[in-house]
Amino acid sequence: MTSSPAIAIHLSAAFAALLLGGAMLTMRKGTPRHRLLGRSWVLVMVATAISSFWIKTHGHYSWIHLLSVWVLFALGVAVVAIYKGNVRAHRRWITGTYVGLAAAGIFTLLPQRLLGALVWRTVGFM
């Protein structure tokens, strides 16, 4: 499979966000390490969202690009919340964004999707 640089950036950033976010779920919150990894997670999520705008179906944006706009909004709200000391709101927005990332990853692996077809063919299920 050949892919555009935008797809490669998007997949790499999304995969990094999935791994980093998963690791952060298991660690103690509020530590300097948590803050450093959290900033890194926000950056790779921003890269994931922004890179999606260069990935179009038949040259056009689709409804899924609205999710990228939503992710950028949610990340902004989460960052503002933690700077204001609202840990509860921060946790809710970050958790929701991570769940959305995981759901998008699962839907990407459906057999009728490009990446899903490639993965399932590679492992011998198609």
TrEMBL record:
Pfam family, one: DUF2306
Source organism superkingdom: Bacteria
Transmembrane stretches, start-end: 6-25, 37-55, 61-83, 95-120
Keyword Ubl conjugation annotated: no
Keywords: Membrane, Transmembrane, Transmembrane helix
Name of the molecule in the record: DUF2306 domain-containing protein
Naturally occurring in which organism (per UniProt): Noviherbaspirillum sedimenti
